Amino acid sequence: IDSEGQFATDTIEITVLAPLRGVTTAGDLVISEAMVNPGPATGVDGEWFEIYNPTDNRLDLTGLTIRDDGTDFHVLAGSIVLDPKSYFVLGRTRDVGLNGGAPVDYVYGTFFTMADDMDSIVLEMGPTTIDRVAYDALTWPIEEGIAMSLSGNMMADDLNDLPENWCQPSTPYGTVGLRGPPQEDNPTCVP
């Protein structure tokens, strides 16, 4: 009741969030784009990869391990929540002057490096492999300064294992002529 004895009619806006849960199952996250060879303009500081949440839940990424099949690894720390149907970019640096303009959400620093010719990106939570992409320069669409992008109609952990489901995006980003803007819907690859 307000000062004049009338019932107040304030509007309250309520946002209902999707349920929050941990990353527990293969396919909870999908590796969807990677800049494995940014070239001399940025060097390894221009490396990044993008993950996608295909679920209808907000996912807690705290404790997720990123690694390759060699010795590189890093465990995500801090409170990190990825909304449903959203992208998240992990990279060596958030400094756009060093990384070529990539909007990096999480910095793994020097703990993880992607080789230009052959390597893998593995996501694990505890003993469970959530997603894994193993690539090589002979059969995958790897070119200096151009990210490789999973086809927008193939956003699943079993479909990103095949090089024919990846292509080179044509959209530029940043200031040094790199292509493959992260955090955007991936284009459909045309064979």
Entry keywords:
mainly beta; about 190 residues; 6-stranded mixed beta sheet; single chain; globular; 4-stranded antiparallel beta sheet; 1 helix
Describe the structure.
This protein is mainly β and 191 residues long. 2% of the residues lie in helices and 30% in strands. It is built from 1 helix and 15 strands. It has one helix spanning 96-99; strands spanning 20-22, 30-35, 48-52, 58-60, 65-67, 73-75, 81-82, 87-91, 106-107, 118-125, 128-136, 148-150, 166-167, 172-173, 178-179. The strands form 4 sheets. The protein has a 6-stranded mixed β-sheet with strand order 9-8-3-2-12-13, with no helix packed on it. Strands 6-5-10-11 form a 4-stranded antiparallel β-sheet, with no helix packed on it. A 3-stranded mixed β-sheet has the order 1-4-7, with no helix packed on it. A hairpin with a 2-residue loop joins strand 10 and strand 11. It is globular, with a radius of gyration of 19 Å. The N and C termini lie far apart (66 Å).
